[in-house]
């Protein structure tokens, strides 16, 4: 009896050791602390988007190994592109953004679509610090324009701060605002209400008109910014223009989608999910309570066979107003470390200057063809795969026909920002009714090898233990049984 128990214990312990070691080899989990350094609205609006270069660039092609230096230059050759459904603009710029055309007080503006802020802001006539040669909002040209007084219940916060007029309110004070953006720009101004017209649909909205701009606020890529953050759940913020449209048009639901394809085109669908923009099903993840942001909970982040702790990603938000993919400093540093350990054979990964410095770019797509995919997991079992063609941005220089491929991942602080690099190729749904964010494969992206989020076999489920959707075999049971048998052996 003792011999049989001993043999059984040895057998089970050996299985436990083998299973445990196999798991460790497969998961390659990276402990950063231990390393040094379908739903449809009744009515909706579909708007074409342009993808604009944020900076013109110059390339010096007289460098060996396919390396080209990248130099920001003055964007003197900027052109305002007409917005139409037939627009065909290549993805341009190491930093790029998506723009849309609207009418405010019957005055035309091109606005950047930004889900990371809430207040729509455009330059006000008479703003001395605003950039010249772009449209400005003139209240005198609109019969429906109203300057909001500080005493109004519509005088609310901008998302960055509360109105300063509330501190010294008097009968003549007007509602003011200030906004600080992540790129270092800052604006101050007054809050107005006026009529907005988007694709023939009109509503009364509240927005900011800039009297002071610090930094290159949207210039020259756009005239202003259209905030589409979350205000429906916060009564202390000026409602976004879309929230205002939803409140005044019962047929428009509080849901919108953004689709960026690989051909320089995109679409913004307001009030509905447009089935023409995606294939397969939409995978949803809940929005976390995080003020005006579309914050979602990460469950995993993997590169090749190495996974990074999800809790090292900090707060994660989906932000169309951010060009790049921004990782927390901890995750970014170790991502670079991983590249330099496993991809050093590729030029400019370990050599200087490096692609990570934003000073050089690859000349051909083949130069980074073996770069890894980035695999993200989110609460609810959502899995997103980002191919190298997303984070190596095709950049057109100011020399016609000259392109480069530039690193599109940035080092942040304690927040992960899923910008346009992340969203590209997917139809992203911002659902303020069910409080969730959805992802689906863009209709024209399937042949671009975008990660198929509906094909679970594409994502090795070994690396998604924390998302609650994998029925993991509990290897702890082996240890438990072994301990019981050892006790039994001792008692015998």
UniProtKB/TrEMBL annotation:
Keywords: Aspartyl protease, Hydrolase, Protease, Signal. InterPro entries: Aspartic_peptidase_A1, Aspartic_peptidase_AS, Pepsin-like_dom, PEPTIDASE_A1, Peptidase_aspartic_dom_sf. Residues 1-20 form the signal peptide. The keyword Isomerase does not apply. GO terms for biological process: proteolysis. The keyword Lipid biosynthesis does not apply. Belongs to the peptidase A1 family. PANTHER family: ASPARTYL PROTEASE-RELATED, PEPTIDASE A1 DOMAIN-CONTAINING PROTEIN. This is Peptidase A1 domain-containing protein. The lineage of its organism: Eukaryota, Amoebozoa, Evosea, Eumycetozoa, Dictyostelia.
